[in-house]
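Input (structure):
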C-alpha cells in the first residue's frame, strides 16, 4: 500500500517539527493512541487501539526515526508483526505557515493483509488527516 499527500499547518516550521518529536503531542494526536513514549532519541514506542473493520485491535510497535534534518526532513519506519512500513516527511515554509508533504508505503501480512485495498487506503488517508489535524490542534493549544 502506497500513500502520499500533504497538509498545511498554521504554525512555523520549527514548531511543527518540534511537535512531531513531543510524545504528549503525538499521544493526543494519533487516533486511538493509548501511549506514546520516546525510549531513545530515535525510537518511539506506541500503543494504539485501531477500530477499523478487519484490523480492529490494540497494536504495539516501535517507530524508528532516521535521516533527521531539523527542521525540514525526517524518515520513519516501523516493522512489527504483520506491518512493515516507512514514510518520508518534508516540511517547507509557506509564508507564515508550514507545508508538510509525505510519501510512504506499508506492507501488510497475515490478517492485516485484508486491509491492503482501496478501502484500507482510504481509511489510512482518513486517519492521517485526523492525525495532522490533531497535531495542529496541539500546536495551537
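Output (sequence):
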Amino acid at each position: 500500500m502506497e500513500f502520499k499527500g500533504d497538509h498545511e499547518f498554521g504554525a512555523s516550521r520549527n514548531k511543527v517539527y518540534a511537535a512531531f518529536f513531543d510524545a504528549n503531542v503525538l499521544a493526543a494526536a494519533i487516533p486511538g493512541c493509548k501511549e506514546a513514549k520516546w525510549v531513545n532519541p530515535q525510537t518511539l514506542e506506541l500503543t494504539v487501539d485501531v477500530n477499523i473493520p478487519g484490523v480492529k485491535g490494540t497494536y504495539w510497535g516501535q517507530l524508528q526515526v532516521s535521516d533527521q534534518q531539523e527542521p525540514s526532513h525526517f524518515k520513519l519506519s516501523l516493522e512489527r508483526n504483520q506491518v512493515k512500513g516507512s514514510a518520508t516527511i518534508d516540511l517547507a515554509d509557506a509564508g507564515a505557515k508550514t507545508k508538510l508533504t509525505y510519501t510512504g508505503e506499508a506492507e501488510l501480512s497475515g490478517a492485516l493483509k485484508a486491509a491492503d485495498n482501496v478501502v484500507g487506503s482510504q481509511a489510512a488517508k482518513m486517519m492521517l488527516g485526523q492525525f495532522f489535524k490533531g497535531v495542529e490542534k496541539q500546536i495551537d493549544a
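Notes: The chain has a mean pLDDT of 87. The first helix runs from residue 13 to 19.
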